[in-house]
């Protein structure tokens, strides 16, 4: 771009084409701010007026920068020069607002477009925007309306709706879309194939994820990474490393995201030495500079192994300012190992870095509670309220007869509540007869009865009881949860899989837990 700028500056006369060439060049080379400045000059230049190329390019720069205020200024330029009727410009405006987290503006622009003006790009922008803003059901609805209106999906369409299906754990819908992809000839697209692998994996169907991968003849780094991530999420550590070695053997170079999955597998399997070896190879062998995600994996790896002092030294030796996710990994380790002193110090850092993150308050409160410091735990919750921070309510859902039934902790809204609670009371008696004691006794000998009682009615246990009531005998019970599964629920689900002779599959925010015959696929390491 330096040479291009030199040629541009030496031009005796500059027209719209030369100005656009510079703006597009800056954008392609990710020099977004320079592209924006050039556009400002175009607006100021009396002899040149913006066109759809310059406007769409600078809107793309705004989208990548998150510069919504300047994006609004560009919107004004669009209206001033009568460019708002052009479909290409409309789509660029919608995309800019969507990526700048002003999705309501995207929807407004989409709705005022005429049916004839909506092309595949328009539909893709609104569908992917729904996914980005976690409106997964809306994303699926837009996809099916688009199909009804006779518009053929492309790679981007399928990738977005598969991502939405994965987040909803909507396996039936994902399978239906897979059939459409086969018929439309998009199975050769690595983008679509990797999305299919991820969809099947997040819906708990690792077998079909593997089948899609094996049937793909053109496996690039995106497909390999999707498969490695699937194995990691399901706790298949050996397959993670086998796939990683096979990928390298085929000459495919791992990327930034590949290493996140492999290092995460090391963390969840307690493979400290292997994790450090891979971490060091990123720069030395593969030329990839470790990012915050990789460093967080190393801290998590050391933390899970109980090596908290080493984890802290690792953070303090980092050449860059540690991201909140890295301190968050250490705080989680302090909770797991009841390190009150370090946990308190780390939490203070996190309260400064991200004061509105409820997870940090909850972790510190749990550390206090587990150490019998109930007064301090209450104080943390009070501080949470004073700062206007609200904990995301835990909820679990289970699909029965094509309907998703949602439960929250101590939920009594269901018509079969009495039966659900009776099953859990019987389960509690059976488990206690096996010698299990709830983890609610603190170091000073206090047992909090109310806490023990509430633990038995967490959302995933209610979903479990409902599954036992409604699903066929011996049928697998599949539960989804929006938060991490707690230790008590994890232990109870292991017992339940043995007592009822059922396979119980739980997808929490981190990974899959497959409970069979009294054990979990995670090896109690999650």
TrEMBL record:
<feature type="repeat" description="PPR">
    <location>
        <begin position="220"/>
        <end position="254"/>
    </location>
</feature>
<dbReference type="InterPro" id="IPR002885">
    <property type="entry name" value="PPR_rpt"/>
</dbReference>
<feature type="repeat" description="PPR">
    <location>
        <begin position="15"/>
        <end position="50"/>
    </location>
</feature>
<dbReference type="Pfam" id="PF20431">
    <property type="entry name" value="E_motif"/>
</dbReference>
<protein>
    <recommendedName>
        <fullName>DYW domain-containing protein</fullName>
    </recommendedName>
</protein>
<dbReference type="GO" id="GO:0009451">
    <property type="term" value="P:RNA modification"/>
</dbReference>
<dbReference type="Pfam" id="PF01535">
    <property type="entry name" value="PPR"/>
</dbReference>
<dbReference type="GO" id="GO:0003723">
    <property type="term" value="F:RNA binding"/>
</dbReference>
<dbReference type="InterPro" id="IPR046848">
    <property type="entry name" value="E_motif"/>
</dbReference>
<feature type="domain" description="DYW">
    <location>
        <begin position="435"/>
        <end position="526"/>
    </location>
</feature>
<dbReference type="Pfam" id="PF14432">
    <property type="entry name" value="DYW_deaminase"/>
</dbReference>
<feature type="repeat" description="PPR">
    <location>
        <begin position="255"/>
        <end position="290"/>
    </location>
</feature>
<dbReference type="InterPro" id="IPR032867">
    <property type="entry name" value="DYW_dom"/>
</dbReference>
<comment type="similarity">
    <text>Belongs to the PPR family. PCMP-H subfamily.</text>
</comment>
<keyword id="KW-0677">Repeat</keyword>
<dbReference type="Pfam" id="PF13041">
    <property type="entry name" value="PPR_2"/>
</dbReference>
<dbReference type="InterPro" id="IPR046960">
    <property type="entry name" value="PPR_At4g14850-like_plant"/>
</dbReference>
<feature type="repeat" description="PPR">
    <location>
        <begin position="119"/>
        <end position="153"/>
    </location>
</feature>
<dbReference type="InterPro" id="IPR011990">
    <property type="entry name" value="TPR-like_helical_dom_sf"/>
</dbReference>
<dbReference type="GO" id="GO:0008270">
    <property type="term" value="F:zinc ion binding"/>
</dbReference>
